[in-house]
């Protein structure tokens, strides 16, 4: 398998999931501005949407969109329990959180990274994010992970998105449960390995 990624982007989530799963894969870095891979290949030929992540299987098929990719990865190694069994209520609970993180958190960060966004718009986004972050924080006050005692791919996705806070001046200190969560997930060996591989922390 090949994972097309850009350092620190949302592709970090499937990158961590692949390491947690213990699967063999190749990392291929993409320049999102030029739409070229590190070897100079036209990334649009692989993923016409032009963004990351994209997982290319050994038979050439591709899968895009982080929430879909991390579920695929989890299902390859059910013994790792990165996702509840398909068809179970708990699996739908996982999908609930993946959708929430994608639509309510991930997309809300985008305007904060965009220099064309007005200060008024950014302030409105921050207010909305504060409400949503409060919802997640309350969930994590009762259990170490979103689904309870077991780490899931939803937690990996949440860890990556919350990590962007430092780059857009969002202070997580009002939510101790979020800070504790970041420390808990961030200390995992697979997470540290992924961060080092993407050059986000020093060796």
From TrEMBL:
InterPro entries: Glutathione-S-Trfase_C-like, Glutathione-S-Trfase_C_sf, Glutathione_S-Trfase, Glutathione_S-Trfase_N, GST_C, Thioredoxin-like_sf. The keyword Transferase applies. Keywords: Transferase. Glutathione 1 binds at residues 107, 110. It holds the Pfam family GST_C. The keyword Transferase applies. It is an enzyme of class 2 (transferase). GO terms for molecular function: glutathione transferase activity. It comes from the Bacteria. Glutathione 3 binds at residues 10, 35, 52, 66, 99, 106-107. Residues 87-203 form the GST C-terminal domain. Residues 1-81 form the GST N-terminal domain. Glutathione 2 binds at residues 10, 35, 52, 66, 99, 106. Its EC number is 2.5.1.18. This is Glutathione S-transferase.
């Amino acid at each position: 398998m090949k994972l097309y990624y850009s350092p620190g982007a949302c592709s970090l989530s499937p990158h961590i999931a692949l390491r947690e799963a213990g699967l063999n894969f190749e990392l291929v870095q993409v320049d999102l501005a030029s739409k070229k891979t590190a070897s100079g290949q036209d990334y649009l030929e692989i993923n016409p949407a032009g963004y990351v992540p994209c997982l290319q299987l050994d038979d050439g098929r591709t899968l895009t969109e982080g929430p879909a990719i991390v579920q695929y990865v989890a299902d390859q190694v059910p013994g790792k329990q990165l996702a509840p069994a398909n068809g179970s209520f708990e699996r739908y609970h996982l999908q609930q959180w993946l959708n929430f993180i994608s639509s309510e958190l991930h997309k809300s960060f985008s305007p904060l990274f965009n220099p064309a966004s007005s200060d008024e718009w950014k302030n409105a986004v921050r207010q909305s994010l504060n409400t949503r972050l409060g919802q997640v924080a309350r969930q994590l006050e009762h259990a170490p992970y979103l689904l309870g005692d077991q780490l899931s791919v939803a937690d990996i996705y949440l860890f990556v998105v919350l990590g962007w806070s430092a780059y857009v001046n969002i202070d997580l200190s009002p939510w101790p449960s979020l800070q504790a969560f970041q420390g808990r997930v961030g200390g995992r060996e697979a997470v540290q390995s992924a961060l080092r591989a993407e050059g986000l922390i020093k060796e």
